Amino acid sequence: MSYNFTVILLAQSLMLLLLWESASGFGLRCKEEERRALLQIKAELQQQIELEWKGMECCSWERVTCDPITGHVTRLDLGVDPMPGSILLNATTFLPLRQLRSLSLSGLGITMAGAGFESWSSLSKLKMLDLSYNLLNNTIISSLAKVSSLRVLDLENTAIVGNIPVKEFSALNLEVVNLRKNGLNGSLPYLGDWSSLKALSLAGNILDGTITSTGNS
Ligand SMILES: *[C@@H]1O[C@H](CO)[C@@H](O)[C@H](O)[C@H]1NC(C)=O
Ligand SMILES: *[C@@H]1O[C@H](CO)[C@@H](O)[C@H](O)[C@H]1NC(C)=O
Ligand SMILES: *[C@@H]1O[C@H](CO)[C@@H](O)[C@H](O)[C@H]1NC(C)=O
Questions:
Q1: Ligand minimally distant from the alpha carbon of residue 207
Q2: pTM score, two decimals?
Q3: Which end of the chain has fewer surrounding CB within 10 Å, N or C?
Q4: How far is the CA of 128 from the centre of ligand 1 (A)?
Q5: Where are the bilayer-spanning segments (predicted)?
Q6: Which residues contact 160 (CB under 8 A, 6 or more apart)?
Q7: pLDDT, tens digit, 9 for 90 and up, residues 139-192
């Protein structure tokens, strides 16, 4: 009886220790392929953001979040206050991060030219993407057309002009879209067919008319 009780206590302490280890990041095992991809990303972005990424345990690096159980990178917060200067990004560098759910590259001055954002269609978990305050243009919308997991897209201040690209966004099932501070013009389109839409931010454009059939800001 008391022997069994001791065993249970020991097992419980062991479980607590394991829980503590994974909660504090100590038990995480960074995937080597993902660590190498992160170092490549660091090199690509080095003009604009200084990342203290070194060592083997990439899950404990600043701005990197891993799944506490699998150790895969799930989130990268590389956004900065908008920087002067520009970066030629190679989007394929991110592809080894196959479990990536959330990515912010805000303010880095990433240009459209040759970036190859189309390749992110194979990031099948990518749900939140923040590309605000980069040197993009309307082409970004068609480039992301096959990133079908996307639900939240931030394209504030990315030089998108003309009519609101409702068709492209509704085909992607986007729920939250920020298009503030772009060059959108003309009249507001009917948004009732964009059934996935929960929030659309349009301030800082030159639009006429009123929005119907949607939550909006
Ligand atoms: C982008 O990166 C991939 C993989 O790292 C490489 O194969 C490709 O040549 C690069 N593309 C450019 C334009 O640098
Ligand atoms: C967007 O920029 C890229 C790269 O500079 C260019 O090739 C493309 O034609 C531009 N697209 C639009 C719609 O302006
Ligand atoms: C809207 O913007 C586009 C692209 O800048 C421009 O070609 C067009 O003339 C503008 N239309 C109106 C109604 O201002």
A1: 3
A2: 0.85
A3: N
A4: 24
A5: none
A6: 136, 137, 138, 140, 141, 179, 182, 183, 184
A7: 999 999 999 999 999 999 999 999 999 989 989 999 999 999 999 998 888 888
